[in-house]
Design goal:
Blueprint lengths: L6 E7 L3 E8 L4 E8 L5 H14 L8 E7 L2 H7 L6 E6 L5 H4 L24 E4 L2 E2 L5 E3 L3 H14 L3 E4 L9 H13 L4 E4 H4 L5 H30 L13 E4 L5 E3 H6 L7 H16 L5 E6 L4 E7 L2 E2 L1 E2 L2 E3 L2 E3 L3 E2 L2 E3 L5 E5 L5 E7 L18 H7 L8 E2 L3 E2 L2 H16 L3 H23 L11 E5 L3 H11 L4 E4 L6 H8 L2 E12 H26 L7 E11 L6 E5 L10 H13 L8 E12 L11 E5 L5 E9 L9 E9 L5 E6 L2 E4 L4 E4 L4 E4 L5 E4 L3
Parallel strand pairs: 1-4, 4-11, 5-6, 5-9, 9-10, 13-25, 31-34, 33-35
Antiparallel strand pairs: 1-2, 2-3, 7-8, 11-12, 13-14, 14-15, 14-20, 16-19, 17-18, 21-22, 23-24, 26-38, 27-30, 28-29, 28-30, 32-33, 34-37, 35-36, 37-38
Length: 699
C-alpha cells in the first residue's frame, strides 16, 4: 500500500459521537468534525463526518487517497448480545467447555453473582470423537460421521456461524481443518471458524472463547463493512470514494488491517477505537518529549485508560470483553463505565452513584435537548459553567443549561438535601473517583507510581477532567493533545499495518537451544513477511519484532521477553532479561531456577509515512487578546483539604488563537471544536510548538 496522494481521512465511531479528521499532506492542514453517531446504521454517520471534515478544506471523496476506520461495532455486538446465531463444535466429552470456563469468581464472596448470557447456548454445542495429544500425535481418528450429524442439527437450528475447537489443535490442526471442510460443504453460506484460524496458543478455554467470539461477529461485521464500503463509494449519499482506494480498519493491538482481514477475523477489531487513541497519544506525547504517560480517553459512554512506558503501549494477550476472554494481542486498556453521558443516580442506601448506565447518543444528556430525562456528567459540567448554554458541541449542537439544572435539582439535589452546585459537583467528584480507581488498576496495582507519569486526557470530555484526576493522583502534569476530541480518529492516520503470529512450544529452555528457537522464529517471520508483501508494503518498510514467552518451570503463566536474533549472544542473554522482568513485575526473581519456553510471538509491522502535524506559530508570554473569547463564572468543587466549593471568574480562550510559548493561568477554559480544557485555580498551562498544551497541576 502506498499513501502518497493528498488527502488522508479517518473516522472513529463511538457510542455517542462519530469523530472524523481530514489531513492535507501538501499544506499539513488538519480539519475535524464531530457528528452524532447513527445507531441504526453507523456507516451513515461515518460518511457524514468525513464529508464535513473534507468540506472544511473544499475537498471531496474524489480527493481522498486513504481512509482509516475505528469503530465499536464488534464491541457493541458483544455487550448487547446481538451477534450471529452461533454453534460450537468440540471434542466428545467437552460439550460444556464454554459454560464451565475457568471457574473464576470476579467477587470472591458473592454467592448471588449472575453470569452473563453465553454467546453460544448449550443446545448449540456439539461434539465429535477424535483426539490429538499435546505432542500433535493422533490418538483417535476424527469421527467424521459425528461432524456430519452435527452439521445436520446446525442446519435445522438455522445457525449463521460455527466455531470449532479441538484439544491440542495448536500442535496439529488436522482435525479442525477437516471438520471445517465438512461443515463448509454441508452449510453453504454459514461462516465457519476453526480456532487455529485465529491463533495457535494453548489454553483450550481461552482459545475456544476467542474462536467463538470471531464466529459470533463474522456475519455482523460482514454486513457492516459491506455497508460501509458501499456508502463510502456512493457519490450521492456517501463519500464518493474511488473503489481502489485503501480502507484500513484499526485493530485492537494498535495496528491496521485491510477490510478483507477485518471480515475474516473481526475479533481483532474489538476495542479498535480506543486502541487508535492510545497509539495517537503515544505519538503526540513523544513529539512533546514525554515518553511515560497514562492515557485517559473519556467519551460519551466510557473512560478507556492505558499506561505507556518509553513511548510503547503495553500489549496483553489476556484481555476480556464482558467476561468473554480474548486470547489475542491487544493494547492493555482498562475500560470503565464513566463517560460524559454516564447517568447519575442514588442507590438504595442513599449514596450518589455515577454510571455505568449511559444516556448514549439517543437520547443523550438532558442538555442536548433530544429527550434525555436523567442527569449525566455532561449536565453537571454545564451547570457548573465548564461550558455554557452558548457553547456549541462539535460546532453545531446548542446546549440547554436550564434543562440540565432542572433535572439535577429534581433527581439529585432535592433528594440529598444539597444545593444545585453541591449536587453537580458531587456528580463530578464521584465520576473522578471512578476514573482514579481505574487508573490505579493499570499503575499502582502493577507496581507503577502515577507520579512518575504525565496524564494525557483526550476524547470529547477528557481535557475537562484532566486536572482534578491528576490532582487526586498527585500527578505533576497533564498533556492535552491537539484536537483531543478526535484523537482516536487521528490514530488511524498514524498507525502502521500489523500482523501478529503466536505459536505455543512448551519446552525447557536448555533443551530447545538457540538453533531450535531460530528455526521457529525464521518460519514465523517468513509468514509475517508474506502477509506484508500481500499488503503491498515495500521490503524497506517491513519490521519484525520477536518476543519469547518464558517462565520458571512449574509456573502457570509466562512473561514475554523481547529478543533480537540478529544480535550475537541473544539467546544466552534471555535468562537475565527474564529475571529482570520478573523482579520488576512481581518483586522477586530466582536466577538459579530453570527456565521454560512457552511460546513465540512475531509481529510484522508495515511502516506507513506518518503525517507531518502542523506546528503552532511562535509567541511568548501571555496569550494574545485575539484568542480571548471572554469570561464566565465557573464552579470548582472543594479540594482534598475539604472546605466548600466556590464560583470563580474564569477567562475563556480559543485554542485556535493560541501561540507556542503562551502561558495561561487557571482558572480558565480553553475551547475548541472537539473538546474543552478546564484549568483549575493554581494550574498553569503552556502551549508547545507541537500544538499540545502542557499543564502544571497545582497540588
Amino acid at each position: 500500500m502506498t499513501v502518497d496522494q493528498r488527502f488522508r481521512v479517518a473516522s472513529d465511531v463511538g457510542g455517542t459521537f462519530t469523530d472524523s479528521i481530514a489531513y492535507d499532506a501538501e499544506t499539513r492542514c488538519i480539519t475535524v468534525s464531530k457528528v452524532s453517531t447513527t445507531p441504526g446504521n453507523r456507516a451513515l454517520g461515518t460518511a457524514e463526518g468525513l464529508k464535513k471534515a473534507l468540506a472544511l478544506q473544499d475537498a471531496t471523496g474524489a480527493d481522498v487517497a486513504y481512509v482509516g476506520h475505528g469503530m465499536t461495532t464488534a464491541t457493541n455486538a458483544v455487550i448487547q448480545r446481538n451477534g450471529a446465531k452461533t454453534a460450537f463444535l468440540t471434542n466428545e466429552g467437552f460439550r460444556d467447555l464454554l459454560q464451565i470456563g475457568r471457574q473464576n469468581r470476579p467477587t470472591l464472596f458473592d454467592i448471588t453473582v449472575v453470569h452473563p448470557e453465553q454467546l453460544v447456548p448449550r443446545e448449540l454445542c456439539f461434539t465429535a470423537g477424535g483426539r490429538i495429544d499435546h505432542l500433535g500425535q493422533e490418538l483417535t481418528p476424527l469421527d467424521e460421521d459425528a461432524v456430519h450429524a452435527a452439521a445436520t442439527a446446525m442446519a435445522a437450528a438455522g445457525v449463521e456461524s460455527v466455531a470449532i475447537l479441538f484439544l491440542h489443535s495448536y500442535t496439529n490442526p488436522r482435525h479442525e481443518r477437516r471438520a471445517r471442510e465438512i461443515l463448509e460443504a454441508a452449510l453453504p453460506g454459514v461462516a465457519v471458524c476453526a480456532s487455529t484460524d485465529i491463533n495457535s496458543e494453548f489454553r483450550e478455554y481461552e482459545r475456544a472463547s476467542t474462536a467463538v467470539l470471531n464466529a459470533y461477529l463474522r456475519p455482523v461485521m460482514e454486513t457492516y463493512l459491506r455497508t460501509l464500503s458501499g456508502i463510502l463509494q456512493d457519490s450521492e449519499d456517501g463519500l464518493g470514494l474511488s473503489p481502489e482506494k485503501p480502507v484500513m480498519v484499526m485493530d485492537a493491538a494498535g495496528g491496521l488491517m485491510s477490510l478483507d482481514s477485518a471480515r475474516e477475523k473481526p475479533v481483532h477489531t474489538v476495542l479498535s477505537g480506543p486502541a487508535g487513541g492510545v497509539v495517537a497519544a503515544a505519538h503526540v506525547a513523544a513529539s512533546a518529549g514525554v515518553g511515560d504517560i497514562i492515557t485517559m480517553d473519556i467519551g460519551g459512554t466510557s473512560t478507556d485508560i492505558s499506561l505507556i512506558r518509553g513511548g510503547r503501549p503495553e500489549i496483553t494477550r489476556a484481555a476480556s470483553l464482558e467476561t468473554v476472554p480474548i486470547q489475542l494481542p491487544v493494547i492493555d486498556i482498562n475500560a470503565i463505565g464513566a463517560g460524559g453521558g454516564s447517568i447519575a443516580w442514588i442507590d438504595e442506601g442513599g449514596a450518589l452513584r455515577v454510571g455505568p448506565m449511559s444516556a448514549e447518543a439517543v437520547p443523550g444528556p438532558v442538555c442536548y435537548g433530544r429527550g434525555g430525562d436523567r442527569p449525566t456528567v455532561t449536565d453537571a459540567n454545564i451547570v457548573l459553567g465548564r461550558f455554557d448554554g452558548r457553547s456549541r458541541l462539535g460546532g453545531t449542537m446548542e446546549m440547554d443549561a436550564a434543562a440540565a439544572a432542572r433535572v439535577i435539582r429534581r433527581d439529585i439535589a432535592e433528594p440529598l438535601g444539597l444545593s444545585l452546585e453541591e449536587a453537580a459537583a458531587g456528580i463530578l467528584r464521584v465520576a473522578h473517583a471512578n476514573i482514579v480507581r481505574g487508573i490505579r488498576v493499570v499503575s499502582v496495582e502493577r507496581g507503577y507510581d502515577p507520579r512518575d507519569f504525565a496524564l494525557v486526557p483526550f476524547g470529547g470530555a477528557g481535557p475537562m477532567h484532566g486536572s482534578p484526576v491528576a490532582r487526586e493522583l498527585k500527578m505533576p502534569s497533564v498533556l492535552v493533545p491537539p484536537t483531543p476530541g478526535i484523537l482516536c480518529a487521528m490514530g488511524q492516520l498514524i498507525s502502521d499495518l500489523r500482523h501478529d503470529f503466536v505459536e505455543t512450544h512448551v519446552v525447557p529452555f536448555g533443551a530447545l537451544g538457540e538453533a531450535g528457537a531460530a528455526e521457529i522464529i525464521d518460519r514465523l517471520v517468513a509468514t509475517a513477511r508474506r502477509h506484508l508483501d500481500e499488503d503491498g508494503v515495500p521490503a524497506g518498510r517491513q519490521i519484525f519484532e520477536v518476543k519469547i514467552d518464558l517462565r520458571y518451570e512449574g509456573q502457570s503463566f509466562a512473561l514475554p521477553i523481547h529478543a533480537d536474533p540478529g544480535t550475537p549472544g541473544w539467546w544466552a542473554g534471555l535468562p537475565e532479561a527474564f529475571n529482570a522482568a520478573h523482579e520488576a513485575r512481581f518483586g522477586h526473581a530466582d536466577p538459579a531456577a530453570p527456565l521454560e519456553v512457552v511460546g513465540f510471538n512475531i509481529t510484522g509491522i508495515g511502516k506507513i509515512e506518518k503525517p507531518h502535524l502542523p506546528e503552532v506559530p511562535a509567541g511568548q508570554g501571555a496569550a494574545p487578546d485575539a484568542a480571548l473569547r471572554g469570561e464566565r463564572q465557573v464552579y470548582f468543587e472543594p479540594g482534598d483539604g475539604g472546605g466548600e466549593g466556590a464560583w470563580h471568574r474564569a477567562r475563556v480562550w480559543s485554542r485556535e488563537g493560541l501561540l507556542a510559548g503562551n502561558v495561561i493561568d487557571g482558572p480558565a477554559a480553553i475551547e475548541e471544536v472537539s473538546s474543552t480544557t478546564i484549568l483549575y485555580p493554581g494550574d498553569r498551562a503552556r502551549v508547545l510548538a507541537s500544538g499540545s498544551i502542557i499543564v502544571e497541576v497545582a497540588q
